[in-house]
Amino acid sequence: MGSISSIKIFGFLANWSPFFLVAIIFTTIVFFLLTGRWRHEIPGNRPLKKSEGIIFVICMILLYAMKGSPVDLLSHIIFSFHMLQMAVLYLMIVPLLFFAIPEYLIDYCIKQPYIERVFNFFTRPIIALITFNGLFSIYHIPEILDGLKQNATLHSLFTILLFITAVFMWYPIFNNSKLERKKLSGLIKIGYIFLIGVLLTPACGLIIFATHPMYKTYTDPAAWMSAMSLCVPTGILQDIVQNSGISGPQYFTNMTPQDDQQTGGVIMKVLQEVFFGVMMFNVFFKWARDERRTPDEITEQSLKEMQQQEAYFNQYR
């Protein structure tokens, strides 16, 4: 019996995904160019706030930690890490991106041909709630998760789809769009967050209270080997199995598959409650602050924003 640290035998490429790290670094450089040197090409631009830059870097570090570090490899071995990965990706990183990416850049992307109509439809609160939570529940149907875990292309596409629908789901709460569109009030935002938690609960509950291990990729050696080939080169994987006697994921943990599955469900639920609690506090604090503003303060702020916009467009007259 090995331990979690035994995943070092899979090699540097499988543990640290250097190509994904390069993609993260490239994305970060492009972001700072878009919000710095190149921002003057985008209507309504403004200087990047220091807090936005810091939060974006934090998001990229978290993204690499979840999808490029040993956590990603462990998510194919131990179900608890899979659920940790899901919680951080979709319930933490995606909302944080709205605090990192300037609103003018998001608006510019939304206004592109063919994107605006799709975006406007899928960011309707009810549609956004049903789409993400429905896909999340479908993803954790045993037959579907096992199938996706053993097909690299389908797994990548479904992960991207979940990420996009998570953006749609969080947009009604955290967007600071200057575009003319309806916005939710503070109390409705709190209710919206609460409803997300309610819709996530059935999937977590089924995982926590299931009377048997549901996923073959975390219990069956053949299915696990197929799933591991997504992140470990086939030749290296076969050599390791032949020389080490590893017969399945149980080699790397002392937990039984049942305990691992239940722990994963609990991790998802606990992190969900923590993240949502922080979000509700943020929304309530902002709503309470806005409610205390006088009509004169609101008018003054609106005039200031109009003057900034007019000054920008005067540059091109």
Walk me through what this model shows.
With 317 residues, this protein is mainly α. The chain has one domain (4-314). The chain is 72% helix and 0% strand. It contains 15 helices and no strands. The termini are far apart. Residues 311-317 have low confidence and may be disordered.
Q: What topology emerges from the helices and strands here?
A:
Layout: H1 12-16, H2 18-34, H3 50-67, H4 70-75, H5 79-100, H6 103-110, H7 115-122, H8 125-139, H9 142-149, H10 152-174, H11 186-209, H12 221-228, H13 234-244, H14 257-292, H15 295-314
Helix pairs in contact: 2-3, 3-5, 5-10, 5-14, 8-10, 8-11, 11-14
Beta-strand fraction estimate: under 5%
SS elements, strand count: 0
* Major beta sheet summary: none
Order of helices and strands: HHHHHHHHHHHHHHH
Instruction: Indicate the mean pLDDT.
Output: 88
Radius of gyration in whole Å, from Cα?
22 Å
Count, helices: 15
Helix content: over 70%
Shape: globular
How far apart the termini lie comes to 73 Å
Provide the domain count: 1
Unreliable spans = 311-317
Structural class: mainly alpha
Organism: Macrococcus armenti
Membrane topology: Multi-pass membrane protein
InterPro entries: Caa3-assmbl_CtaG, Caa3_assmbl_CtaG-rel
Protein name: Cytochrome c oxidase assembly factor CtaG
